[in-house]
């Protein structure tokens, strides 16, 4: 095996978000078996990479073992990339029916969805990051309001919520990040 972190056969994905978990399970099916623990992790302020690395270190400490975590951002060009990692708090306050109003004073509705996975072997180890981005537009909610801002993020004429799951996973920020993780996993999974 190439030098670097080892990965157990069962990857422990730490998240409290059921929709995220379902997508990750669907995309990684047949690649690696996923286990899930819901640990309430503190999320710091900082760049996307700083937030995700810190979240991963905390998760590894909390479970005292190897972990996979993920942090999702939604960034608006007109707002100089904010809210970014803080989108969760805007969603909690505004909800999917009002989030588009954040850009109502701006002609530029460009939005980028960014997904950053981090894997860490255990406490004291440096996390490895895998990032995927999808460019789209922030629009008025269209489609089911089941998952976060899916109904407000439009990619090539359709919101994520108007796509079926496999269609979203093919072009999504999460799908792209997991393509990179899958490539890396090929050389890393511990066969012992
Ligand atoms: O336990 P964790 O994994 O941290 O789960 P979370 O729900 O706190 O997730 P984040 O910290 O990554 O915050 C991202 C926010 O964006 C939402 N979100 C994440 N992925 C999404 C996707 O693919 N489509 C729409 N909304 C998404 C999610 O519901 C949150 O409001
Ligand atoms: Mg979170």
UniProtKB/TrEMBL annotation:
GO cellular component: cytoplasm; nucleus
Keywords: Cytoplasm, Hydrolase, Magnesium, Manganese, Metal-binding, Nucleotide metabolism, Nucleotide-binding, Nucleus
Known role: Pyrophosphatase that hydrolyzes non-canonical purine nucleotides such as inosine triphosphate (ITP), deoxyinosine triphosphate (dITP) or xanthosine 5'-triphosphate (XTP) to their respective monophosphate derivatives. The enzyme does not distinguish between the deoxy- and ribose forms. Probably excludes non-canonical purines from RNA and DNA precursor pools, thus preventing their incorporation into RNA and DNA and avoiding chromosomal lesions. Pyrophosphatase that hydrolyzes the non-canonical purine nucleotides inosine triphosphate (ITP), deoxyinosine triphosphate (dITP) as well as 2'-deoxy-N-6-hydroxylaminopurine triphosphate (dHAPTP) and xanthosine 5'-triphosphate (XTP) to their respective monophosphate derivatives. The enzyme does not distinguish between the deoxy- and ribose forms. Probably excludes non-canonical purines from RNA and DNA precursor pools, thus preventing their incorporation into RNA and DNA and avoiding chromosomal lesions.
EC number: 3.6.1.66
Primary localization: cytoplasm
Protein residues bound to Mg(2+): 43, 71
Name of this chain's protein: Inosine triphosphate pyrophosphatase
Catalytically driven reaction(s): N(6)-hydroxy-dATP + H2O = N(6)-hydroxy-dAMP + diphosphate + H(+); ITP + H2O = IMP + diphosphate + H(+); dITP + H2O = dIMP + diphosphate + H(+); XTP + H2O = XMP + diphosphate + H(+)
Pfam families: Ham1p_like (PF01725)
CDD domains per the UniProt record, alphabetical: HAM1 (cd00515)
């Amino acid at each position: 095996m190439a030098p670097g972190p080892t990965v157990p056969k069962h990857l422990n994905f730490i998240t409290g978000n059921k929709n995220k978990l379902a997508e990750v399970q669907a995309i990684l099916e047949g690649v690696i078996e996923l286990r899930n623990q819901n640990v309430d992790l503190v999320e710091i302020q900082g760049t996307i990479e700083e937030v995700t690395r810190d979240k991963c270190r905390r998760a590894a400490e909390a479970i005292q073992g190897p972990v996979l975590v993920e942090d999702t951002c939604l960034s608006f060009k007109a707002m100089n990339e904010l809210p970014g990692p803080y989108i969760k708090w805007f969603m909690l306050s505004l909800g999917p029916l009002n989030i588009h109003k954040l850009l109502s004073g701006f002609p530029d509705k460009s939005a980028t969805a960014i997904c950053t996975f981090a894997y860490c072997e255990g406490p004291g180890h440096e996390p490895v990051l895998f990032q995927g981005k999808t460019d789209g537009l922030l629009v008025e909610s269209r489609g089911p309001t089941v998952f976060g801002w899916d109904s407000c993020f439009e990619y090539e004429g359709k919101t994520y919520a108007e796509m079926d799951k496999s269609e979203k996973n093919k072009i999504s920020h999460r799908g792209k990040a997991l393509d990179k993780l899958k490539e890396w996993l090929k050389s890393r999974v511990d066969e012992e």
